[in-house]
Amino acid sequence: MAATARSGLVKLLCSSALLLLCCFLLPGALAEERFYEFVVQETLVKRLCKAQKIITVNGQFPGPTIEVYNGDTVAIKAVNLAQYNVTLHWHGLRQLRNGWADGPEFVTQCPIRPGGSYTYRFTIQDQEGTLWWHAHSSWLRATVHGALIIHPRRGLPYPFPKPHKEFPVILAEWWRRDPIAVLRQSMITGAPPNVSDALLINGQPGDFLPCSSQETSIIPVVTGETSLLRIINAAMNTELFVSLAGHKMTVVAADAMYTKPFETTVVLLGPGQTADVLVTAHAAPGRYYLAARAYASAQGVPFDNTTATAIFQYKNAPGCPTTAGAGAGAGAGMGANTFSGPADRSSARSSGSHLGRTGPQPMLPFLPAFNDTNTATAFSNSLRSPEPVKVPGPVTQEVFTTVGFGLFNCRPGPFCQGPNNTRFGASMNNVSFQLPNTVSLLQAHYHHIPGVFTDDFPPFPPVFFDFTSQNIPRALWQPVKGTRLYRVKYGAVVQIVFQDTGIFAAEEHPMHIHGYHFYVLATGFGNYDPRRDAAKFNLVDPPSRNTIGVPVGGWAVVRFVADNPGVWLVHCHIDAHLTGGLAMALLVEDGESQLEATVAPPLDLPICVL
């Protein structure tokens, strides 16, 4: 009897151990390796009645959608057949210990030269939701970008009811000229770059722009079904309000981090930010505009005031064509880029991707005024983590940094056409960031190459003043150029206060930190005062993001643990500001163990050309 009992106990223990082992190994066993080839090339497209050549990936605009699962390993071979140098960045991926795959030019790698190639290799580690990828070299990301969708591990559900369909909604900007030429003109003259000529939704301006209505993006829906819209602001320089006529949207995630669900009629996204929203098709069957237009927070600064539209179209809506293939145009299977294609789509108008162009006039949504800061603030303040979180602390390293514009004095002439005969610039703590051009910052750090950068970025402004005043003395307007990094100890609890300034113009700045997500503890207006404003910190359920909009004439406080060694760019995601110098970089030291150190560079890392 005792032997039988012992035998039963052994079997039970073995079964339990096997079950535990399966639970431990199953997620890894289900993970897959995925390979993509991205050919960067020139492609002829037609927008706003004009055919022009742009740089694309695989001839698609927007570029291919990458769909993976949490835990998957990804290899993306980038082949550069274009005439420009290029790098690719996987926006929001943490790239743990693997900065070599992060992508910003001359920060973590030298560019892929024309005719060259480089394979980005990384593993998705405990991330899921909507991210995106884009070029991180010059202004190529204007047309070189696409969605990066990470599903939960296989077999695991969303933390919300599963939607019937999912649709990427990519917002962007369009210039009638080559965006690289727009940037080059600005760099030569010293004036801010020209604003874009149109806003886009899934590569198309929509019904309100010339020669565009036949190509307006269609989102097909069925009465009673719930769709997940994965909204991405890939615009170069414009924060955007997004609204859907006749429907409310339920926000369930931001920057690939789940949020406490809340209903809204307006979504605000700065460049680089994403939002996942659920929409149930409960309205009368018909056609409804999904529209996007600028949130322009800077007074007196030019902006693109067009409105981009897509159409939320019900199946079997009165007056609309009916066909079984109507869903093919806006959402399909894994890895499909179902909302892009050739520029001249006249031959494709009867295909699934262009059904429903005819029909009754869609209903227009309410969109806030261009300068509606109250609505922008209300949306941002509604974001919360779904459950209480453990906010890291106490703080061991703190940075208080200004973020704003500056003007460089110069001799009046053709190279000095900025405001008041100056050259336009931008800075953090009065340092206008300059990239090296012979070796990347990560390579210089990893290989101990001297003379490339210094690690003395100031943790506080060199001068404290009324940062948000409209009458800042001109002596404070000129920054100093430099390649200065801020050194962070591995494991440090880092708190960064971003403070907008009124130099030239106050403006909301979407600040992105590569390699990290961070908790947004608080935002506010005016000058940050730690004695007053620390009491406003949300230490219970702050949202976690990778890009935070620093309010116009205000401040934002973020906090994170420095658990990812390497060199990580911190910058405004408005590219006109980034190219003006509104950036710095964190140099996060290795920890004590091998698993706390930057991995060795890959053998095919692009060679730097001296």
TrEMBL record:
Major localization listed first in the record, in broad terms: secreted
Membrane in keyword set: no
Coiled coil: none
Subcellular location: Secreted, Extracellular space, Apoplast
Protein origin, superkingdom: Eukaryota
Reaction catalyzed: 4 hydroquinone + O2 = 4 benzosemiquinone + 2 H2O
Cofactor(s) the protein needs: Cu cation
Region spans: Disordered: 337-367
Cited function: Lignin degradation and detoxification of lignin-derived products.
Protein name as it appears in the record: laccase
